[in-house]
Amino acid sequence: MKTSFNEANVLTETTGLGRAGASPRPHLHKTIDRDQLLAQLHWRYATKQFDARRKISSKDWSTLEEALVLTPSSYGLQPWKFLVVNDPDVRQKLLAASWGQTQIIDASHLVVFTIKKNLSEKDVDAYLDRIAEVREVPRDSLHALRQTLIGSVIRGWDDARRREWSSRQAYIALGNFLTSAALLGIDACPMEGVDRLKYNELLGLDELGLQTVVVAAAGYRSNTDQYATAKKVRFARDEVIVSV
Ligand SMILES: Cc1cc2nc3c(=O)[nH]c(=O)nc-3n(C[C@H](O)[C@H](O)[C@H](O)COP(=O)(O)O)c2cc1C
Q: Taking the CA atoms of the chain, what radius of gyration do you get in angstroms?
């Protein structure tokens, strides 16, 4: 018997997944060893100077876009859009709204993580349509899930809470992006040092119903970037990890 909220129950019981017929995900072989993982996490750093001449290949970039798409989110609602800003003139304007941080213009690629400003029943319905399509389940079978999502995210919260929640989801995408880039040997810089309102204005996000949360620049480090060789500063593991 369920005694408390459990998202897993909501999602599986309402989408037919708990019943016979759903095939288990194949068990993947290990693709990266422990040393490689840690080596890449040590290798990465918040890149301050990019080599403006080096561009990420289209295959690598496409992989990173797919990593963004694959980001998990609470309820699976994906309340975001990721803007890839390619236009150099727009990037130049964004530079002024980013405290002059040159990563904005020098990096090969620039992603603005945005959330939907007014997440609504329409977005929930689009998500349910997608579940029905991908999992080939009748749309009607998702009624209970619809009630849950609308009851909590849409009607249960005010705008401020919904946007705060959506922003937290966008940060998961940022983390996923940074790690994915590092695993591919691509440099990146997460950036909060941007004027979000100016970004919204320059990118015309209001009209798209979006707002800026955070930014990431990606490309290849310049060999003059002194941060590349600076030691990583992290608290000792026993100060950060608590076993209970
Ligand atoms: C959400 C977030 C926002 C950040 N904003 C900026 C930024 O605007 N400019 C910058 O140069 N670094 C920025 N950083 C980089 C951090 O300073 C850096 O990640 C931190 O000092 C740890 O160093 P490391 O990433 O090089 O290991 C940001 C990092 C995060 C996670």
A: 20
